[in-house]
């Protein structure tokens, strides 16, 4: 029999920040480069093992498009946990995340565990620590030269996609009492940690 504790978790955040992709990585360890927008919401489940117990997440992955906003209370009502996602390459998505956090803190279960996830961190990381080094002359570097300022390293080029500094988001999360992770649904970075740290904060019944 399944004795694991069920935990209702909702994902919220602006359209296209990667909510469904974060869930797909957590539940199936997969990534889809052209994931279609969610309509309404999707429901998925996934077990999460801690040292002393197993939780079964019942996940409501909501649609970020504005026309679905009014449905959100149905999904965060009675939720024990929420993941509010933004895209670190899009500053407006952090503002949207902050407004979701406010709404949750006013309207959701007062004991809800909220985590902030700054997704798409892979977009600001070089694929190799030595890429863009002086003297390299492979095809990839020549392609980069077409768009980059002459002499600028590829690492600086990719870091410039970042619109939300790590310490700014961390400071906001600390002030608002949120767990915080930068994640990548594409590489898997931070995803298991995100759901595991939430699980650790769910009170034992
Ligand atoms: P809505 O359902 O419309 O609210 O969007 P969503 O937040 O569920 O976003 P979704 O998961 O559909 O991802 C949107 C696009 O971003 C897709 O093309 C994904 O492949 C891409 N994407 C999601 N996560 C990542 C990531 O971590 N890195 C990169 N590079 N792309 C990502
Ligand atoms: Mg989606």
UniProtKB/TrEMBL annotation:
Low complexity bias (residue ranges): 146-157
Keyword tags: Nucleotide-binding
Annotated segments matching region Disordered: 124-162
GO function terms (MF aspect): GTP binding; GTPase activity
Keyword Cell cycle set for record: no
Entry protein name: Ras-domain-containing protein
Species for this entry: Phellinidium pouzarii
Residue range from the parent sequence: 9 to 213 of 254
């Amino acid at each position: 029999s399944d004795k694991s504790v069920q935990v209702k978790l909702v994902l919220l955040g602006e359209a296209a920040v990667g909510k469904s992709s974060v869930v797909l990585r957590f539940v199936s360890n997969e990534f889809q480069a052209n994931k279609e927008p969610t309509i309404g919401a999707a429901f998925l489940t996934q077990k999460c093992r801690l040292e002393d117990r197993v939780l079964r997440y019942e996940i409501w992955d909501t649609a970020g498009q504005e026309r679905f906003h009014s449905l959100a209370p149905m999904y965060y009502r009675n939720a024990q946990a929420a993941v509010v996602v933004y895209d670190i390459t899009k500053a407006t998505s952090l503002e949207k995340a902050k407004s979701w956090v406010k709404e949750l803190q006013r309207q959701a279960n007062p004991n809800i565990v909220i985590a902030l996830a700054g997704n798409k961190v892979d977009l600001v990381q070089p694929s190799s620590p030595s890429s863009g080094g002086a003297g390299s002359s492979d095809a990839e570097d020549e392609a980069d030269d077409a768009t980059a300022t002459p002499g600028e390293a590829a690492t600086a080029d990719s870091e410039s996609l970042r619109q939300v500094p790590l310490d700014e988001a961390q400071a906001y999360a600390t002030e608002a009492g949120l767990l915080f992770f930068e994640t990548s649904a594409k590489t898997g970075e931070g995803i298991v940690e995100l759901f595991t740290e939430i699980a650790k904060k769910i009170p034992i019944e």
